[in-house]
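Below is how a single chain appears once it has passed through the pipeline. First comes the sequence as given, then the structure the pipeline wrote out for it. We keep one example in the README because the format questions we get most often are answered faster by looking than by reading.
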Amino acid sequence: MQINPNITSSDNKVNNAILPFVIITFIYFIVGFLTTVNEQLQAPLKFTFLSHAGSLKNTFTTLISFFFFLGYLLNGTLGSKWVNRFGYKNTILRGLLFMISGLFMYLCSSWFGDQYPEAKFNIKDAVIPFGFIIFVIGSYLMGTSAAIIQVVVNPSHRLYINGNGHYQEASSSRSCSYKSCGRRKT
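Resulting structure:
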C-alpha cells in the first residue's frame, strides 16, 4: 500500500493550530491582567507616593488610570499601522517591548522614590514625588502596549475560535460576518 504524502489529516491541522491559539490566549490574559493590576495599584500608591498630596490625593490617584487609557486612545491606531507595515508577529513583539518598558518604568519609579526621597514638587498644598511622575509615564506605556497588542490579538483570537487559524484571513473574517448576517458590505 502506497501512502500519498500530499494528503494531510485534519488532526495535524488541529495540532498545528493549538500552540498559536494558546500563545494568543496567554497574551490576551496578560493584557487583561495588567489592566486589572493597574487599577489595583491605585490604593497602595495613594499611601506611598501621595501621602502628602493633601486635598489633591484622589485627583492624582485617578491620573494613573487616566494615563493608562490615554495610551489606548492615542496609540490604538499606531498598532493598526504597525500591523500593515510590519505584520502581526512583529507588532505583537513591539507591543510586548512597550509592556516591558512600562514595567521597567514602574520599577524605576520605586527605585527613584527610594534613592531620591527629597526630589519632589509642589502643586498648591500637595507635595508630589518625582517617582509618581515616572510611574504615571509607565502607566501610559502600559496602556500603549495593551492597545497595540489588542489590535493584533482580538482579530487573531476570533479567527482561532471560528476555526480558521490563519492570520492572513483577518480581512475576510470581517466580510464573513456581513454574509452571515445577511447584510451587504458597503
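Residues 165-186 have pLDDT under 50 and may be disordered.

See the next section for the split statistics.
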